[in-house]
């Protein structure tokens, strides 16, 4: 009563074709995902798996994104859109997914501090320079640089200050409080472990 098995394995995903919006986003199953800004205006194919999405362009895999559960949600990666934001910093203040542009609480603290001292446009320009450094170099090192500045300076933290501390961290010229000294072991101590005596025989009764 059973029909013959298929000649090849059935695909475990569904394939959809999407156009990347000017905001560098695509809509999949009523959720929004960001992709690299290089694909803005291009048509891509998305393999929708149970746990993730595979974004393909020109028959090449360019991105794998964790799939969102439910509907009406979004997953926006600042690294995807930082180049677009740098070209139009004035749009940052009213950007729909602005909250996703703060990788950690410390990044948000820097932006809020800039807003108090500068116009919204200038604050956005300075903050986006910091965010770009995190995107192109190292988010963890930029976050650490901000942490140090927050504890050592009472003035507004701008991109110049962050870049200076970041460069010190990157070259491992850290402040004394951040350095970890590990004493080198003396190889001579291992000679004390060797003797000319043979291990004594143990007689079993």
Q: Residue-averaged pLDDT, rounded?
A: 87
Fraction of residues in β-strands: 15-25%
Note poorly predicted spans.
175-179
> Radius of gyration, Cα only, in angstroms?
27 Å
> How many strand elements?
7
Q: Which strands sit side by side, in order, in the main sheet?
A: 1-4-5-6
What sort of overall outline do the alpha carbons produce when their principal axes are compared?
A: flat
Q: Could you estimate the helical fraction of the residues in percent?
A: 25-40%
- Measured distance between first and last alpha carbons: 75 Å
- Provide a count of the helices: 5
Largest beta-sheet characterization:
4 strands, antiparallel
Q: Tell me the domain tally.
A: 2
Spell the H/E element sequence. Answer: EEEEEEEHHHHH
Structure in words:
The chain has 205 residues and is α+β, with helices and mostly antiparallel strands. The protein has 5 helices and 7 strands; from the N terminus they run βββββββααααα. The protein has a 4-stranded antiparallel sheet, with no helix packed on it. Strands 2-3-7 form a 3-stranded mixed sheet, with no helix packed on it. The chain is flat and about 75 Å long. It starts with 13 loop residues before the first strand and ends in a 35-residue tail after the last helix. Residues 175-179 have low confidence and may be disordered.
């Amino acid at each position: 009563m059973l029909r013959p098995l298929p000649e090849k394995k059935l695909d475990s995903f569904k394939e959809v074709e999407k156009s990347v919006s000017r905001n560098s986003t695509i809509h999949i199953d009523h959720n929004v995902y960001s992709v690299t800004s290089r694909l803005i205006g291009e048509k891509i194919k998305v393999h929708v798996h149970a746990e993730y999405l595979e974004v393909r362009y020109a028959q090449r895999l360019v991105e794998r994104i964790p799939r969102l559960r439910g509907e009406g949600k979004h997953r926006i990666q600042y690294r995807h859109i930082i180049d677009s934001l740098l070209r139009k910093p004035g749009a940052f203040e009213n950007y729909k997914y602005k909250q996703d542009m703060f990788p950690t609480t410390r990044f948000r603290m820097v932006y809020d501090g800039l807003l108090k001292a500068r116009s919204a446009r200038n604050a956005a320009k300075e903050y986006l320079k910091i965010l770009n450094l995190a995107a192109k170099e190292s988010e963890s090192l930029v976050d650490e640089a901000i942490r140090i500045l927050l504890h050592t300076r009472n003035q507004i933290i701008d991109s110049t200050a962050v870049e200076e501390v970041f460069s010190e961290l990157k070259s491992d010229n850290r402040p004394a409080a951040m350095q970890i000294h590990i004493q080198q072991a003396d190889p001579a101590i291992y000679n004390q472990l060797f003797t000319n005596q043979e291990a004594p025989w143990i007689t079993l009764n």
